[in-house]
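dude i think i finally got it to work??
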Amino acid sequence: MKTLALSTASRSLAEYASELDDEIVLLTKRNRPFAAIVPLRNVDRESLALSTHPGFLALIERSRREVVAGKTLSLAEMRAALATDRRASESIPSAKRHGRTSRSRRRPRAGRA
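look at this
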């Protein structure tokens, strides 16, 4: 990552941006990070918009807290849980799984043929 103090920039930011390969240029103001010039090769608009969306960022932060707190399942644990659920649902007849029995057939509404 390159760092460029705005006070010492001798060219336009567009010129610096045109020289980017895969490197980020961090712009500083009074020795503090101020902005960044980031290459956007192979980045679609949806990914860019999502990466700065407050709701998405809140979701990521909540997920990180859950990982730290140990409130997550490993991939193996998730697969085992799904396999158990699938076996349980396969042992129940289809009509009962969907809340239907022979007595729960729909009756025609009044006034309709």
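Strands lie at 2-5, 25-29, 32-37.
im so relieved honestly
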